[in-house]
Design a protein that fits this description.
This protein has 257 residues and is α/β, with parallel strands linked by helices. It folds into 2 domains: 9-96, Ribosomal protein L30/S12 (60s Ribosomal Protein L30, Chain: A, 2-Layer Sandwich), CATH 3.30.1330.30; 102-256, SPOUT methyltransferase, trefoil knot domain (Alpha/beta knot), CATH 3.40.1280.10. Helices cover 38% and strands 21% of the residues. The strands form 2 sheets. Strands 7-6-5-10-8-11-9 form a 7-stranded parallel sheet, with helices on both faces. A 4-stranded mixed sheet has the order 1-4-2-3, with helices on both faces. Helix 7 (121-133) links the parallel strand 5 (111-116) and strand 6. Helix 1 packs parallel to helix 5, helix 2 (34-41) crosses helix 4 (61-67) and helix 7 runs parallel beside helix 8 (151-157). The radius of gyration is 20 Å and the shape is elongated.
């Protein structure tokens, strides 16, 4: 399939979704660049369409063929009008996310990483990447957090979200009720937690909550959790993405020791 006009209705729909960081009207997410296409091939999401210039499609023939998706050739100018990055990499992938369930996130000895109103997509993406690296069984995006469809989040997550079970737009009340009925312990990262990270038992099923820098974890969630802190020198607290990389590593260390 070949498109030539920047005013093509399909391209307008993709452009609107990419600019807003939202799914298309058909529920597809826009991932920019050949790297995310390569990562999507290793994931569980369905690749529906690959858009690219003639030169880029030729250059990445192997990836495009592996995708087994509809290929749409788009002129450079039209593709640049869609891309949210300053310098387009001339390949866009339209993906349908896999639908996950609470049961899948809470499988085995659960280790959930829970984002409480973390709006910065770069931080959220880094957290997703660390969660996968250190063995988390799933991610939960509570209301007020960035959306998985955000292009900056997808780039920062570097493919981890294509493989890691997740749920988004979950209310705090629903989360608390689900976890209390399922049994995992709730730990909330806080600058002045009752227990330090290294004295926290991560061997059993648990969920680790992290809040936005400044606001922290909400009072409602803190009240339902055990607060833990990461010891630091000369600084009061860590960036949310850093804290939520250090803490899952400690859980990973305990579980693999």
């Amino acid at each position: 399939m070949q498109l030539t006009s920047t005013q093509n209705p399909f391209l307008r729909s993709v452009r609107k979704a990419a600019a807003a960081g939202r799914p298309t009207e058909d529920g597809l997410l826009v991932a920019e660049g050949p790297h995310l296409l390569e990562e999507a091939l290793r994931g569980t999401w369905h690749i529906e369409k690959v858009l690219g210039t003639a030169e880029a499609l030729e250059r990445h023939t192997n990836l495009v063929e592996q995708a087994r998706a509809e290929v749409v050739e788009v002129p450079r100018r039209a593709l640049s009008s869609i891309a949210s990055t300053e310098s387009t990499q001339e390949v866009l992938t339209l993906l349908r996310p896999r639908a996950w369930s609470w049961k899948e996130l809470l499988r085995d000895t659960a280790l959930l990483v829970v984002l409480d109103a973390i709006q910065d997509p770069g931080n959220a993406g880094t957290i997703a990447r660390s969660a996968e690296a250190f063995g988390a069984t799933g991610l939960v995006f509570l209301n007020g957090s960035t959306r998985v469809s955000n292009g900056k989040f997808l780039r920062a997550a570097a493919g981890s979200i294509f493989r890691l079970p997740f749920l988004e737009s979950i209310t705090s009340q629903d989360f608390i009720e689900r976890l209390q009925s399922a049994g995992p312990r709730l730990y909330a990262l806080a600058p002045r937690g009752r227990t330090t990270l290294i004295h926290t038992d991560f061997a059993g099923a648990c969920a680790l909550l992290v809040g936005a820098e400044g606001a922290g974890v909400s009072p409602e969630l803190l009240a339902a959790s055990e607060s833990i802190s990461i010891p630091t020198r000369h600084v009061e607290s860590l960036n949310a993405a850093v804290a939520c990389s250090v803490a899952p590593f400690e859980a990973f260390r305990q579980r693999t020791a």
